[in-house]
């Protein structure tokens, strides 16, 4: 009887362990999918903040090219990174380029940088970071207007030597008690502009539409 009871309990425990492991695996998979979906949604919102619908007539989400492998290191990008292209008619008017600053205070700072055909910045948005709440997280637009200070700037305005935070002799504000975070963002945005300047002709030379134009009045989701 004792042996049967032990065997029965062991079976129940084993079945419970299998059930629990399966439930945890399903929960983890579901969580990963939700996180990935949330990240994609955040990126899409940021894309249209930088290049709003009225400023392009192509399917921005599907008109992409891969980041060239020679740019992976300076941009902090990877094999799956894509450059989004905005068009008016058949002409590429702006690019949205992914970039990651690896020298943030608390780790990587993932962002996208919109660059117009004339080399000026259409906008910058931070997508993911782990910077200190109340200090470094001011790089988020919902927390502070600082990220908008890049709008309209290029490698000549300010001059290249002034693409730094003020503490380092540049023109960009730092945050009280947090210099490392804005320094990392400024440096990475500058590297994006340098990448575009070095590859301007090839990046903007494709004038053939790769995706269907968006009918007037149709909104993106």
UniProtKB/TrEMBL annotation:
Organism: Cellvibrio fibrivorans
Modified residue annotations for FMN phosphoryl threonine: 179
Assembly and interaction partners: The complex is composed of six subunits: RnfA, RnfB, RnfC, RnfD, RnfE and RnfG.
TM spans (from-to): none
Keywords: Cell inner membrane, Cell membrane, Electron transport, Flavoprotein, FMN, Membrane, Phosphoprotein, Translocase, Transmembrane, Transmembrane helix, Transport
Annotated signal peptide: none
Protein name: Ion-translocating oxidoreductase complex subunit G
Role noted for this protein: Part of a membrane-bound complex that couples electron transfer with translocation of ions across the membrane.
InterPro entries the UniProt entry points to: FMN-bd (IPR007329), Ion_transpt_RnfG/RsxG (IPR010209)
Membership in a protein family: Belongs to the RnfG family.
Domain FMN-binding: 104-196
Keyword DNA-binding attributed: no
Cofactor(s) listed in the protein's UniProt record: FMN
EC number, as in UniProt: 7.-.-.-
Membrane topology: Single-pass membrane protein
């Amino acid at each position: 009887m004792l042996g049967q009871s032990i065997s029965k309990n062991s079976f129940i425990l084993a079945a419970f362990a299998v059930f629990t492991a399966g439930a945890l695996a399903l929960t983890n998979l579901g969580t990963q999918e939700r996180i990935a979906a949330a990240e994609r949604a955040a990126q899409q919102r940021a894309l249209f903040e930088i290049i709003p619908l009225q400023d392009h007539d192509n399917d921005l989400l599907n008109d992409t090219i891969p980041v060239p492998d020679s740019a992976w290191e300076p941009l902090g990008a990877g094999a799956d990174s894509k450059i989004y292209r905005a068009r008016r008619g058949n002409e590429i008017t702006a690019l949205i380029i992914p970039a990651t600053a690896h020298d943030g205070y608390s780790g990587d700072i993932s962002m996208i940088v919109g660059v117009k055909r004339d080399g000026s910045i259409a906008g910058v948005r931070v997508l993911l970071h782990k910077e200190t709440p109340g200090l470094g997280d001011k790089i988020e637009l919902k927390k502070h207007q600082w990220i908008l200070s890049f709008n309209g700037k290029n490698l000549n305005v300010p001059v290249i030597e002034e693409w730094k935070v003020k503490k380092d002799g540049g023109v960009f504000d730092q945050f009280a008690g947090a210099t490392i975070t804005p320094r990392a963002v400024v440096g990475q945005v500058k590297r994006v502009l340098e990448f575009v300047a070095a590859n301007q002709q090839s990046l903007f030379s494709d004038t053939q539409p790769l995706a269907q134009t968006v009918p007037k009045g149709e909104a993106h989701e």
